[in-house]
């Protein structure tokens, strides 16, 4: 009976550890997603589009979606979205002061929607990358962002 009780205690302890580790992984992922959104918003360069774009929304959700929405003065709205599970690689063009981040996906996994466009009407399409204008991005920032995205991609893929 004592051996049974000891084995029961060991099993319960192991089960509690597994449950706690599962919840801690989710908390770490939420922190990483919040950190990613903070970095993207911190380096976003609105000055290059301020005549055309009246406002923008750049969000990384808890479910792992990266969403970028631009509102133009003409009333046109552009919306880009993709799941970080589909993330492939990060590319950067430009200098330290001004550039563009290209978030490439594995295929045509970026949802592109245009609303209220007087020239082309409402358009739904797919793309293989999302471009975000940025400023003050050092090489270290780009490599850190790329490493975080790859890590989050692996974590999100493991959850599914």
Q: What does it look like?
A:
Residues 1-24 form the signal peptide. Keywords: Signal. This protein is of the alpha+beta class and 160 residues long. The chain has one domain (2-159). Helix content is 39%, strand content 36%. It contains two helices and eight strands; from the N terminus they run H-E-E-E-E-E-E-E-E-H. It has helices at 2-43, 139-159; strands at 53-60, 65-72, 77-83, 87-94, 98-105, 110-115, 123-127, 129-135. The strands form two sheets. The protein has a five-stranded antiparallel β-sheet. It has a three-stranded antiparallel β-sheet with strand order 4-5-8, covered by helices on one side. Strand 4 (87-94) and strand 5 (98-105) form a beta hairpin. Helix 1 crosses helix 2 (139-159). The longest helix is centred in the N-terminal third of the chain and has 42 residues, at 2-43. The protein is elongated, with a radius of gyration of 21 Å. The mean pLDDT is 82.
